[in-house]
Each structure stands twice: as structure tokens, then as C-alpha cells.
Design goal:
32% of the residues lie in helices and 26% in strands. By secondary structure, it is an alpha/beta fold. It has two domains: 4-18 and 232-416, Enolpyruvate transferase domain (UDP-n-acetylglucosamine1-carboxyvinyl-transferase, Chain); 22-219, UDP-n-acetylglucosamine1-carboxyvinyl-transferase, Chain, CATH 3.65.10. It is globular and about 60 Å long. The termini are close together. The structure holds uridine-diphosphate-2(N-acetylglucosaminyl) butyric acid (EPU).
């Protein structure tokens, strides 16, 4: 089991190039490649553990996967696919559920292991099911597998109860090959949805309105494989900004745009961080202890839940008291117990946390329960007296390209054990 040691050090400085968004965008674009027969070259797609699982899922289905150096790969989706995502892989990464829509659309059938809840919440799939059923799919859960068949999907008007990212993606990738027009109301508006729709349209789909709450899809008969390049990972960028908030200093981030970060930038500026757009990305400066602000997570363009754990780690050493409300997942505060072990003054009540900033945390051995929780604990370690050891770091490697090395490039004292 991997661990990471963190010590407080000098203020951060230097330039870091933000990695391609392999986890939250790349995995979805790979799943979308299933919709067409042909070869797809994906660039700016560095290896993270979740991407590797998605590649294993695709390989198990009969897709040819070829690595082209460290940041690119080629998929070959010609020929018959085995429309099945086995339990051993789905249990390692729940985004494997994203193959459900494409498989139903292309193969007319799918057998995908049912993912369970995880360390941040129940993570139900009811909206995926209801939407696909409205398009004519027949779905059942038998012996732990979702079994689906769809002999001719048709367009439908679907209203989501909540703007779920995963449900919007699955419905979108099913609707592109359905007969007629599908409208998804209350659709998720995350940048990853817009990027997915852009790829689908380049493949020949007719998707309108992605990035807004109403997405309209005119189904087409067939799609063609095209090459694609991933955008910079906005969560990774936000992680460096919160690290800067704790350690102080001045850093340049390349390969990211301010508009991808939206509310995070608004909040960090309100706290006293200076953030400006540059020609290649952004520059951020933090010269003093930041002031606490309240944060409530919401679907995009609200404050993303994925930034919340790192923001709580920052607020734990800010000046003042903040109330943090988690409105997206039902169990995303378990890392707070670990922060308390480091001396953080945080009280939780249901989905709310009251974070009273303390001048300094104290380093301690702690455990990462999920990808962002682990990143948050490392960031807390940058502002803690002595040494912090974050155990179970493999969770963090699911979504980050060697975060310890990237933070060390900025001058932080972080190393793998
Ligand atoms: N939900 C339902 N029913 C559904 C679908 C979702 O009740 O059918 C609920 C979920 O339980 C959750 C909420 O709706 O409470 C939002 O879930 P959503 O479907 O939007 O999340 P997701 O697609 O499962 C993706 C990211 C998450 C990110 C969320 C929200 C990937 C692989 N995962 O998950 O990323 O937090 O969207 O933006 O893209 C992370 O990177 O750390 C991470 C967890």
C-alpha cells in the first residue's frame, strides 16, 4: 500500500503544466469511441489508474488499445464487440458504467456489472435507468449485473431529477444513435459534458445545447471515428491553487483556462488570493494567510464538490470561521475525521461543516478514503507542523498524474514512501 510523506516548506513557486483530464473527461471520451467503427487517436491523455481500468474494460470488450507514448493512445473499435463490462473492472472504477449508453446504442445489448455505493455516497443509477428506458431500452439487474437490450432506441423527452453528470453522459451517448429527437432537461452543465458533445458532433452526431440545462439530440444512423484531444484537468488545477493557499507563494499554471475553474476562482479571490489569466493559463499569488469564506457545493457552474475536500483543508488554516455545505454527495465528509487528527477544528452536522481556522495544524499519520480526500490531506500537510504521512495513496493515483512529483516541482516537500 502506497503512502506519501509531506512536510511544510518554502512558499511554492514555479510553473506546472496541468495534465489532460484523463479521469473525468478521458474515460467518457473513450467510452464514446465505442459508438463508431474505426480508429480513434486520443492525445493529452496521461495514464492515471482510472484510465487504465477503462482501457481494460474496452480491451475486455474486444477493442484494440495501443499506447502511443506517455500521453497518447489509439483505439480500434472495428469488428464485433463483446458488450460486457465485468465485475472485477467495474468494482475498480464506477465510471465503467459510462459504457452502458454506447453499448445499447451500438450493439443493442449490454451486460455491465452494477457498481455499488462508495466512500462518498450511495451513488444510485435510477436516473440512468429511467432515461434509457424512456428511449426504449429494457433493463434489469440480475445477479449483480445490469442486463440491457434495446432493439431500436427512440428519441424521448427526459427530465432529470438532479443534473447528474453520469446520467447526462449515458443518455447523451445513447441518444446520438436513437431514432428521432431526444431532449434532456435539467442536464448537467459541467465542462466535461460540453467536451463530450463536441467530440460526438465531430463524429457526426447532432447534439445542441450541451453546456446548458437543455440538451437536444437528433439521432443519426451512424457515427464515424475521429481523433480527439483532452482539455486540462480543472480539478488538478484547483488542487494546486488550494496548495498555494496553504503554502503561500506564486505559481503559473499552463494548459487551463480561468473559465474552466469558475466558482473556485471566485472563492479563492474572495479569500484573498490573486489569480490572473495569462497567455498560457493563469498565475496565482498568495502572500498572506487567507480569510475564511463559506462554500456550498453545487452542480456546475456552482462550486464543484470535487474541490470541496481540498478547500476544507485550506479553510482549516484560514483566518476566521466558514460553513461548508455539501449538496451533491451524501457522505463526502469522512476525511474530516482525519483532518481533526491533525488538529483541525471542524464540527460536522449532516451535510454541513463548521470550519474554525487554526494558525497551524500538526502533522500526523492519516488515511485517504478517496481521491480528493487524499489530495486534501496532503495539502493540509503543507501547512502542518512536522511530518504528515498520507496512507492509502492509491486512491489519489486514480485521478492524478503523480501529484507528489508535481507538487515537489513547485518546491513543496512531498515524497512517496
Ligand atoms: N445520482 C442519483 N441517481 C443517479 C445518478 C446520480 O441519485 O441516477 C446522485 C448521486 O448519488 C450524487 C449526485 O446524483 O449524489 C451527483 O452524481 P453525478 O451522477 O453527477 O456524479 P457522477 O457522474 O457519478 C462525476 C464525477 C465525480 C464528480 C461528480 C459531480 C466522474 C468519473 N466522476 O460523478 O468525480 O464528483 O460527477 O460533479 O466523472 C471525483 O473526481 O473525485 C469524483 C467523484
Amino acid at each position: 500500500m502506497s503512502s506519501v510523506r509531506v512536510r511544510p516548506g518554502d512558499p511554492l513557486q514555479g510553473t506546472v503544466r496541468v495534465s489532460g483530464a484523463s479521469k473525468n473527461s478521458g474515460c467518457k471520451q473513450l467510452a464514446a469511441a465505442l459508438l463508431a467503427e474505426g480508429t480513434t487517436t486520443v492525445t493529452n491523455v496521461p495514464s492515471v489508474a482510472d484510465l487504465e481500468v477503462m482501457l481494460d474494460v474496452l480491451t475486455a470488450m474486444g477493442v484494440g488499445v495501443e499506447r502511443l507514448g506517455s500521453d497518447a493512445l489509439r483505439l480500434d473499435t472495428t469488428g464485433e464487440l463483446t458488450p460486457e463490462a465485468p465485475y472485477e473492472l467495474v468494482t475498480r472504477m464506477r465510471a465503467s458504467i459510462n459504457v452502458l449508453g454506447p453499448l445499447l446504442a451500438r450493439c443493442g445489448e449490454a451486460r455491465v456489472a452494477m457498481p455499488g455505493g462508495d466512500n462518498i455516497g450511495q451513488r444510485k443509477l435510477d436516473m440512468h435507468f429511467r432515461g434509457l428506458e424512456a428511449m426504449g431500452a429494457k433493463l434489469s439487474v440480475t445477479h449483480g449485473y445490469i442486463e440491457g437490450s434495446a432493439h431500436g432506441l427512440h428519441g424521448a423527452r427526459i427530465v432529470l431529477e438532479f443534473p447528474s453528470v453520469g446520467a447526462t453522459e449515458n443518455l447523451l451517448t445513447a441518444a446520438v444513435l436513437a431514432d428521432g429527437v431526444t431532449t434532456i432537461e435539467n442536464a448537467a452543465r459541467e465542462p466535461e459534458i460540453r467536451d463530450l458533445a463536441t467530440l460526438l458532433n465531430r463524429m457526426g452526431a447532432r447534439v445542441h445545447g450541451a453546456g446548458t440545462s437543455t440538451i437536444e439530440v437528433e439521432g443519426v444512423r451512424a457515427l464515424a471515428s475521429v481523433d480527439t484531444e483532452l482539455c486540462g484537468d480543472r480539478i488538478e488545477a484547483g488542487t494546486y491553487l488550494t496548495a498555494l493557499g496553504v503554502a503561500g507563494g506564486e505559481i503559473d499554471l499552463e494548459g487551463i483556462r480561468l473559465d474552466q475553474l469558475e466558482m473556485v476562482v471566485v472563492k479563492l479571490r474572495e479569500m484573498g488570493m490573486r489569480i490572473d489569466a495569462t497567455d498560457h493559463g493563469l498565475r496565482a499569488r498568495c502572500e498572506r494567510r487567507l480569510a475564511s469564506v463559506d462554500v456550498a457545493t453545487l452542480p456546475f457552474p456552482g462550486f464543484a464538490t470535487d474541490f470541496m475536500p481540498m478547500t476544507v483543508a485550506l479553510l482549516a488554516v484560514c483566518d476566521g470561521t466558514a460553513i461548508v455545505s455539501e449538496n451533491v454527495f451524501d457522505n463526502r465528509f469522512s476525511f474530516i475525521g482525519e483532518l481533526r487528527r491533525m488538529g483541525a477544528d471542524i464540527r460536522t452536522e449532516d451535510r454541513h461543516a463548521v470550519v474554525r481556522g487554526v494558525p497551524r495544524l500538526s502533522g500526523a499519520p492519516v488515511r485517504a478514503f478517496d481521491v480528493r480526500a487524499g489530495a486534501a490531506l496532503a495539502i493540509a500537510g503543507l501547512g502542518a507542523e512536522g511530518e504528515t504521512v498520507v496512507h492509502d495513496w492509491h486512491h489519489v493515483d486514480r485521478g492524478y498524474v503523480d501529484l507528489p512529483a508535481r507538487l515537489a516541482d513547485l518546491g513543496a516537500w512531498v515524497e512517496r514512501v
